[in-house]
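[agent] plan:
  1. take the single chain provided in the ticket
  2. run structure prediction with default settings
  3. attach structure tokens to the ticket
  4. add a short note for the reviewer (M.T.)
[agent] executing step 1
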Amino acid sequence: MEQSKNIRAKKMMLWFSMISISMTFAGLTSAYVVSKSRPDWLEDFSLPMSLYWSTLVILLSSVSFWQANKKLTTQPKSTASLLWVTLALALAFVFLQFQGFSSLVDKGYYFTGAQSNVTTSFLYVLVLVHLAHLVAGLVVLLVVITNHRRGKYAINPLGFSLAHTFWHFLGFLWVYLFLFLYFLR
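[agent] step 2 finished; step 3 output follows
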């Protein structure tokens, strides 16, 4: 009974966290929509190609984590390999995001300062806030890799399950942001 309450409490904390993160991005994207009516909004702005690639990479990382979850109890070595693939894809995602920032700077679009504008400032904020949450996801993923190596999930897979849910949430959140930015330029 006590263990059941503990499991429910941890799941509820994760869901509350994901809901609050969602509300943060709902507020940011709402501000973006309202700001589109400003006269200084860039009409011909296009997203850097690396953001397209990073979207594919984050989707692939969700697939690899999903596969790791499927094999957790039956194939622990495959699970470990898939977790490392997920980590490599996550790091590739971060690299591609920073490549996107570099591309923006090369085009003369800055976050702040005299050469900045509201359009690209919003883009920087949305991507950086997502990256901050992805850093939390990377820490969680490293903890999962470590705990899996120690055999912790053979006894109690709750931590793996919570990390799996959070990782898919981060992937969904990026896809939402990418589609939002793509269609509402």
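[agent] step 4 note for reviewer: The longest helix spans residues 2-35.
[agent] ticket updated
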